[in-house]
Design a protein that fits this description.
single chain; Rossmann fold; 2 domains; 6-stranded parallel β-sheet; 42% helix; globular; transmembrane; glycosyltransferase activity; transferase
Length: 369
Amino acid sequence: MEDQSVKKVLFILHYPPPVHGAAMVGKYIRESQDINTTFKCDYINLGTSVSVDDIGKGGWSKVKRFFQILKETYRSLKNFRPNLVYITLTSTGIGFFKDALVVLLIRLFRIQMVYHFHNKGVSNKQNKWVYNLIYKFVFKKCKVILLAPPLYSDIQKYIPESKVYYCPNGVPEIRGFEIKEQKQNGKPQILFLSNLIESKGVQTLIDACKVLKDRSIDFSCVFIGGEGDISEGQFQSRVEELQLQNDIFYLGKKYGKDKDEAYRNADIFALPTHYDNECFPLVLLEAMQYGLPIVSTPEGAIAAIVEEGQSGFLVKQKNSEQLANRLEQLIASPTLRSEMGVKGRNFYLQEFTLKKFEDNLTGILKRIV
């Protein structure tokens, strides 16, 4: 006989491929021993894209995949009969309208829902009547999980904060890692680890490197990630145009040991993002656990991750001069790099481990269900 005391949760979320922040969090949830022993779980992949460059685009294959999602959701609602449906809702665009139809299907079964947002943008669309109408429907009788309190303003028109829970992301801890001694020889290395997407600050960082070069500062800058709206060819053309081919290096995608080595070889981590939907980049948490000082922007909830002047610096978006100034400050001072790196790693260990995330999410779901 089925144990009625163990609550059932249907997780409708993203997991790789493609590899991006929300998909990685979905992977962590799906593989979490804590979550899967606390609840009886069923999982449906909400993704319709097969690559990062494919996100936000249409196509017949996506339509077919969407109907498959509806079919899988209906089957789970009917046969699995969850007590709670957890869904990683998209805030805007085609993805939002797709997700709203999934919400409509769930509503027909009168099952409690909680939305876990890994992006933002509701406040940018709320004055458009179509969005406003659907937002009112979607946010009715639900609970919401956000990554940090600064993100609440994005949805405050539709849901009181009493129905909102906060659960910062976490990433797996590297066992046995110790912050290395700073390099005594060689160029300080700046690391950018994200897909080649313009809004992630790729061009801003390249331009900042040009400023550093013009100031005769010795450095190297490594870009790691897949192609996005910037191709490898376009990237290399811009680097050559600025005569930075001896200073900037694109290494493509890196996983596992290769990615680990890239972090260990770096001295500074840079993510000058101006991505509108940026919330809580996992790469910043990864960089912190490797003891790297960070230079980023105050987009989304980044200010809740990077403590200004403590574990790194936050600069104005699209401001290559200010970015270059902060990078130069860190390049010039191994002591400052080390101090900021230690503070960032300690903050990671305190707040952003995967175990901390699993405990927080499990506790929230137990309270809701």
